[in-house]
Automatic annotation (TrEMBL):
Pfam families named among the record's database cross-references: Autoind_bind, GerE
Keyword Ribonucleoprotein found: no
Species of the source: Variovorax guangxiensis
Keyword annotations of the record: DNA-binding, Transcription, Transcription regulation
Protein name (Swiss-Prot/TrEMBL): LuxR family transcriptional regulator
Domain of life: Bacteria
SMART domains reported in the protein's UniProt record: HTH_LUXR
Length: 236
């Protein structure tokens, strides 16, 4: 860790509000040659209504337009970021299917950009985007700055994620070993009778563990309990 990263961490520790944290992330981004930054956190629960929260130093008019036009639903950088932890560099090719969005973003000085996601095991994904108005990102620049960009995206994520949304695991009582076992076998399609044979217990005991797991997860039934526990990384 060099003096710059220590300085950034020191400022982040002093920041108590999300806006203050973002200000320090933005200062670090400027140090790396980017004029603006944005951070978004997506929580993939509930399944039908995943939540996305965002902070940015972008022009407020663009932020308003982005939400008003529904660009959150079609943004190709987000579509990439929820699938991959590999960085993406903005380009005409990346935005080929959303040309209007791309043209409007550039009209607000968001011309050159880089974004990368960080995946949490509890159904949360954070993505940091860095942007500037000119000077394309060259391969040489990316090679030189990659270690610092990797450091910044992880540092920004861990500094901001809990400000934008607590872990879905909060408030859930930890599952017991037996509860996890029966959920894993249920996820594999086994019936309670089959699980009883596999684990050497009675069917009623299997159902007892399933009921308790459902209650701890605040789920409605065993299918939703399996889906929820899988999404939260509990079955890994």
């Amino acid at each position: 860790m060099n003096d710059w990263t220590q300085e950034v961490l020191g400022h982040l520790l002093e920041a108590s509000e999300p806006s203050q944290v973002l200000e320090q992330v933005s200062a670090a981004a400027r140090h790396l040659g980017f004029e603006q930054c944005a951070y978004g956190l997506r929580t993939f629960l509930p399944f039908t209504r995943p939540k996305t929260r965002m902070l940015s130093t972008y022009d407020a008019r663009w932020n308003h337009r982005y939400l008003e036009a529904g660009y959150l639903q079609i943004d190709p950088t987000i579509a990439h970021g929820v699938r991959s932890a590999a960085p993406v560099i903005w380009s005409d090719q990346v935005f080929r299917r959303t040309p209007q969005m791309w043209d409007e973003a550039r009209s607000f000085g968001l011309c050159i950009g880089w974004a990368q996601s960080v995946f949490e095991p509890d159904a949360r994904i954070g993505m940091l985007s860095l942007a500037r108005s000119s000077e394309p990102l060259t391969a040489a620049e990316m090679r030189a700055k990659d270690p610092w960009l990797q450091w910044l995206v992880n540092t920004a994520h861990h500094a901001l994620m809990d400000h934008l949304g607590g872990s879905p695991l909060a408030g859930i009582e930890p599952l017991t070993r037996r509860q996890l076992e029966v959920l894993r076998w249920t996820a594999d399609g086994k019936t309670s009778a089959e699980i009883a044979v596999i684990l050497g217990m009675s069917k009623s005991t299997v159902n007892y563990h399933l009921r308790n797991a459902i209650a701890r997860l605040h789920a409605n039934n065993k299918n939703s309990a399996v889906a929820l526990s899988a999404r939260l990384g509990l079955l890994n």
